[in-house]
């Protein structure tokens, strides 16, 4: 038992609670990577983490609760964005980070398991959306800085540019089976940067011809 129990999702720095949380989330990630979400058993997680089953059931309540907090931790622990001084350099750094994560022997299977679970478990889907939104927020400033430098047009949707970088990499991971290597990461960054420079991600201003047309029946 943990004396300073906290409700699921509540984070407290330091102390035994923090150590238990780290151990449980580490065990959660291990089981996900090895067996997938459907075999994520709270009793097994507790055993691997070296804590009582009651602690895990009381704090997290379900497999989805464990995954939700694991994704919070993963977002918090993700490397901060790189500022290279150019849009292409920044997007290449982002793409290579995604590529390294998805091909990591542990992280790659873990992400596959979470993405698969998100297709049918609503709470896991919500947690995954929050994780990805956090990463978009972290990297979007590199596009806004590129706008300020005049590299891309005013009105460029920063989040769409970042999505364009990672989308082909996730496609390789989950669908095509094509090599997910550094060359693929660089191509994804180069394609997104070229499209951004060409104005592909500019959001039409309210009242513009394109915006008006979009609302015609």
From TrEMBL:
Tagged with keyword DNA-binding: yes
Highest taxon listed in the record's lineage: Bacteria
Record-level Gene Ontology MF annotations: DNA-binding transcription factor activity; transcription cis-regulatory region binding
InterPro entries documented for this protein: Homeodomain-like_sf, HTH-type_TetR-like_transc_reg, HTH_TetR, Tet_transcr_reg_TetR-rel_C_sf, TetR_C
DNA-binding segment(s): 41-60
Keyword annotations: DNA-binding, Transcription, Transcription regulation
Pfam families, per database record: TetR_C_11 (PF16859), TetR_N (PF00440)
Domain HTH tetR-type: 18-78
PANTHER family: HTH-TYPE TRANSCRIPTIONAL REGULATOR RUTR, TETR-FAMILY TRANSCRIPTIONAL REGULATOR
Protein name: Transcriptional regulator, TetR family
Organism: Micromonospora echinaurantiaca
């Amino acid at each position: 038992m943990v004396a300073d129990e906290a409700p699921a999702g509540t984070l407290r720095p330091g102390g035994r609670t923090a150590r238990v949380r780290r151990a449980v989330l580490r065990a959660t990630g291990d089981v996900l990577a090895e067996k997938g979400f459907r075999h994520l058993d709270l009793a097994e997680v507790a055993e691997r983490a070296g804590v009582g089953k009651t602690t895990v059931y009381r704090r997290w309540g379900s497999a989805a609760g464990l995954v939700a907090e694991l994704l919070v931790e993963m977002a918090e622990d993700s490397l901060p964005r790189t500022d290279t001084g150019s849009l292409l350099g920044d997007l290449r750094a982002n793409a290579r980070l995604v590529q390294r994560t998805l091909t990591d022997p542990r992280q790659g299977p873990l992400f596959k398991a979470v993405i698969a679970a998100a297709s049918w478990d609503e709470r896991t889907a919500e947690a995954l959306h929050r994780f990805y939104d956090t990463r978009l927020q972290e990297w979007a400033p590199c596009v806004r800085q590129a706008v300020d430098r005049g590299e891309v047009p005013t009105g460029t949707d920063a989040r769409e540019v970042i999505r364009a970088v990672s989308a082909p990499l996730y496609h390789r991971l989950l669908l095509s089976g094509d090599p997910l290597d550094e060359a693929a990461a660089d191509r994804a960054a180069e394609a997104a940067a070229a499209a951004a420079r060409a104005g592909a991600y500019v959001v039409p201003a309210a009242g513009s011809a394109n915006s008006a047309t979009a609302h015609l029946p």
